[in-house]
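Batch 3, record 17
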Amino acid sequence: MTDQGYTPILEVKNATKTYGEAKAIDNLSISIRESEFVTLLGPSGCGKTTLLRSIAGFVSLDAGSILIRQQDMTMAPPYKRSLGMVFQSLALFPHMTVQENISYGLSVRGASRKACEKRTHEVLELVALQGFGGRRIHELSGGQQQRVALARALATDPDVLLLDEPLSALDLKLKRHLQIELKHIQRQTGTTFLFVTHDQEEALGMSDRIAVINQGRIEQFASASTVYSRPTTSFVANFIGDSNLFQGRVIECRGESLLLDIADFGHVWAPGEASLGDLVTVLVRPEQVSVGDAAVCHMDWKSEGCIVEEHYAGSMRKLKLRVGQTFVSALVGGREAAAPFLNGRLSLGWSSNDCYVLPQEG
Amino acid sequence: MRKMPNTTPMYLIYPAVALGLLFLGSLVYMLQQSLSVEDGYGLTHYIEFFQRPDYVAKGIRTIQISLITTVACLVLGYPTAALILRAGRHKNLLLILLIMPWLVSIVVRSYGWIVMLGGRGVINQALLWTGVIDTPLRLIYNVSGVVIGLTHVFCPFMIISILAVLSHQDRSLTEASMIQGAGPVRTFLRVTWPLSLPGVLSGCALVFLLSCGAIVTPLMLGGFSETMIGTQIYQDVFSLFNFPKAAAMAMILTIVSLAFVFPLQWLERYTKRNLGGPQGES
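Prediction for the assembled complex:
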């Protein structure tokens, strides 16, 4: 679309799908650029998988349309959409070898044996599985199967590669490793990736843009850093990363700055735009909360709290403090993280610039 | 080191042993019967069987009818199994309908077929009335009647065998095939069918064996001249009381039918091993 300054490779317009009473996706629109890594992120049951499956053509929409390379594919069967997909269960054909699995799509399209072999070799090299072509699927490890599934989906050079939580079944270390590799392969091939996950860390690490989905609607669609630092709704702020959300009333507006009256905290300055008397939500990420007298003395806002919870995570220490009746999470990194704070009172504070006032909803 | 406690309770083995002994005992007894002649033991009954062309013809016919029945059950059963699988919330209802005929005795069901297929039966009446035919078709008291009857009785076994493998098949396998560009036909031929072979083969073995040993249906729907071995054994036991001869025929039937079933079993194991993984183990 010209008004967005780019031609989308995939466009979903006003898609709605209802299962009985429940709306799985609700008048949802999204458009994706070529060679982009887009993640659909949301809690389970939010509709992200339904959206992916309707793009694939396995689910027919009640309303709305799907355009691939600006061609209307809403009614096209899956085998006419020139898409690729990596399934959550991988869905590798157990009765075929790795080579046969990968060349399946090509042979179906009538490619010659030689062309199939050449392409299989290419994609196996891409996923670092050279020489595995003759193996049977059950002879491979979980990580290797994952790569074969990716290779099979890439072999036909699809317009968009759909990935349905393909890493969710793997252990953490392998998962992290494959995430990096997946991103690398995506950059290398320039294929458009549409990745579904409920794992926010995975989404932040890999995506160019993240669409946060809740109750069948897109809450925010923006770059990973924007979604994290400038969430548009409290759902996004809560879902991505840990967050401290406080409600306060605007008691003074001075240019781009607001003076808020927050229960237990008193008066807090925060950047943002609102009218006098509005009730707004302010976000302070735990890593932006400073603790200890030395660190706090330069902060714009400071107070004292009781430590109610401490959680040591190696490189950092997570603290939960109570100020009046309100809980504040703080993240302490570096040397301070090593020694426990133990129970007691601790000064805490933050700089006004690190606060973020959420846009008003509704 | 302490031995790991065996979690399988030992008493579970007793019924299995009892069944095994009962089965083995009767087989040994049948073998002994089949070999017994007036003055000791011999192969007389076996030799006599192969010397009578009408018995050999019956044997061949038994195999033929069983093969046709197996194919008919497969052709009718596979789509039915696929339908039941996709029936969603009606699946249980369809399964009940599938099993319901077993509440009725085979004798009654075969009578039903006589009413349907007889010279003055429903089908012939309808065909005569519409003018498709001038003279009634011979649908029963011949091979076709037996095949129809046996297919009706044994098709559920085929359907359940196929349903068992199809319902264990990961649905995303067909989706993976489709998104790769294969249409429904190609997806069936290259993914669904090869992966369902273990169930197809065990269903075929089951239906074939059951057909080989069928008695009631061929007795009621088959002609007098074109009987099957099972019927002959039945007559020898209950009308002629010639137990050794019946036992010999039963042994021959068992061996011949197993000669057909063992390759099927081997093939089934082969395909399963080829599939590997959880698919093969289920």
